[in-house]
Each structure stands twice: as C-alpha cells, then as structure tokens.
Design goal:
It contains 2 helices and no strands.
Length: 72
C-alpha cells in the first residue's frame, strides 16, 4: 500500500509491476514481520511442549516409584 500511495495506480497494479521486475531479476521482494511472528509462535510452542514434557516426566517418575513399592 505504501508503494502505491505516491502513484496514480492501484495497489494491484503496483503488485503486478513489482512481480514483473522480480521475475526479471531487477528486484527482490520479501515479507517483513512474518518471521518475527513465526519466531514468537515457535517460542510459545516450545515453552508449552517443555511444560508438557516436564509433567510427563513427573507422571512417569511417579509410576516408576509406585512400581518399585509394589514389588517390595
């Protein structure tokens, strides 16, 4: 949208022009912000999985302790 603002053309027209320039190898395009959002999501997922694995470890340790006591 920022690129289209100074010109008397629509945003889709600017996008088409940029695509032609990119295909010609004259420009490179990338999406800013998406990587940081993905990183945030990944970090949240990693924390959740770590907490789940910690709980699973505690349950398994408890089961192991119960099995040892049952054998005695």
């Amino acid at each position: 949208m920022e690129l289209a603002a100074p010109f008397e053309m629509s945003q889709p027209a600017v996008s088409r022009h940029l695509k032609v320039l990119e295909e010609a190898g004259l420009i490179l395009r990338w999406v800013e912000g998406a990587i940081s959002e993905i990183d945030q999501w990944r970090d949240t997922l990693r924390q959740s999985l770590a907490a789940n694995y910690d709980r699973l470890d505690a349950v398994l340790a408890g089961m192991k302790t119960k099995n040892r006591k049952a054998r005695r």
